Amino acid sequence: MWGTIAGIAHVAAVAFGPGFYPSWFFLLTSVAYGLMLPVIAVLHVRHVALRESGAMLGTVAGTSVALVGIAASAAPELAVAALFVRAIWWWTIGKIWWETGVLPRWLGAITLGLAVGEFALVLALGPLSVDMAVAWLPLRALLGLWLLALSFALWRSRVTT
17 versus 87: which is more confidently predicted? Predict the structure, then answer.
């Protein structure tokens, strides 16, 4: 449930945008990233039974995604760091899902692909000092959609077990 609300809040925050309704944008940003924390905790419990080191990295990176994501929403110059940390998180958990099947392998494959895409974006645009504020909002919407897919997968795995 929390992941679904977080996903919707990410997409809604992008719809409001920081320039049109800044108060709503930052309220939705706080809700979106804050409600990712219970999801990260649920993932930790699932991952630790399979790979302690991967579970720890996934939890630390996921928590960092929430913290740096909030900061990057207020200070767009942090977007490169936020995207890099998100790529590390997605790579770590995507790899666990792909290799172990703790969550659907298709979601692991998608998550790994998103990680590679964000690594490439950071490596290609980061050194050029490109204003990442332009890419930040669509990538926030992508995070929201990914959270909705993750929430569906978590719900399905809870219903079937």
Answer: 87
